[in-house]
């Protein structure tokens, strides 16, 4: 699953209240899971990155934030 975002799109999402809340959820627990997922993605292992983030991404709170961000 390949995604490409422009710098402007990233600034807009990460600058929003929902984006900041999403980052906080992903970085919870010291952010180690997020760092590991970022490293896996950099190495092209997107399946591993998603596996690492799935517990956070599948929560009701995260899903609600993603729905808001997607409009």
Write the layout of secondary structure elements.
Layout lengths: L6 H9 L1 H10 L5 H11 L3 H12 L2 H10 L2
Helix pairs in contact: 1-2, 2-5, 3-4
Describe the overall structure.
Helices cover 73% and strands 0% of the residues. It has helices at 7-15, 17-26, 32-42, 46-57, 60-69. Helix 1 packs across helix 2 (17-26) and helix 2 runs antiparallel to helix 5. The radius of gyration is 12 Å and the shape is globular.
**Helix proportion:** over 70%
How many DSSP E strands?
0
Distance, first to last CA? 21 Å
- Largest sheet data: none
Helix/strand/pairing category: mainly alpha
Global morphology: globular
The overall pLDDT, averaged over residues, is: 87
| Radius of gyration, whole Å | 12 Å
Provide the β-strand percentage band.
Answer: under 5%
- Give helix and strand order, one letter per element, not per position: HHHHH
What distinguishing features does this structure have?
73% helix; single chain; mainly alpha; 5 helices; globular; 71 residues
Give a brief outline of the structure:
The chain has 71 residues and is an all-alpha fold. The chain has helices at 7-15, 17-26, 32-42, 46-57, 60-69. The protein is built from 5 helices and no strands.
